[in-house]
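User: Here's a structure from my thesis project, written as structure tokens. My advisor, Dr. K., wants to see whether a designed sequence matches the one we expressed. Can you design one independently, without my sequence as a hint?
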């Protein structure tokens, strides 16, 4: 009788374990889903730059003085909730930004750049997003798109 009970317990445990997806492991990291706009220009000159970013009705303005001083960081009107300044700058040249990132996946976006109050660039985007599963299959999807702004 004891062997029979032990066999039933082993079979029951195997069935319960099979019902759980023990092999599924999702990365706990928050996926970065965004629209990144590369800024291609030779127009960076010393001055005060304002970046006006629009995404599906949300707006942010980021201001920075170039060349970028040590420890300086742009100030943004939304505190970085919707948009972020790029994590890397062209250190060898003017300290100018290489891209701006939208922390959202807007269907329509626009970037306006001003130097010392004068508009030097304006471009609208209707991004095409690639859908990925950055934390593994079955762990949630993410949409990412890249665009280029040349001026």
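Assistant: Designed independently from the structure alone:
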């Amino acid at each position: 009788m004891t062997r029979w009970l032990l066999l039933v317990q082993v079979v029951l445990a195997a069935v319960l374990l099979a019902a759980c997806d023990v092999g599924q492991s999702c990365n706990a990291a928050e996926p970065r889903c965004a629209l990144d706009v590369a800024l291609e220009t030779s127009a960076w000159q010393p001055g005060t730059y304002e970046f006006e970013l629009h995404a599906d009705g949300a707006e942010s303005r980021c201001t920075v003085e170039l060349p970028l001083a040590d420890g300086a960081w742009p100030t943004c009107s939304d505190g970085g909730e919707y948009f972020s300044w790029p994590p890397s700058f062209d250190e060898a040249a003017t300290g100018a930004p290489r891209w701006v990132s939208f922390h959202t996946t807007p269907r329509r976006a626009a970037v306006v750049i001003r130097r010392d109050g004068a508009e030097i660039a304006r471009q609208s985007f209707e991004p095409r997003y690639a859908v990925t599963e950055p934390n593994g299959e079955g762990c949630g999807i993410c949409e990412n798109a890249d665009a280029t702004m040349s001026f």
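When you compare it with your expressed construct, this may help: The chain has one helix and twelve strands.
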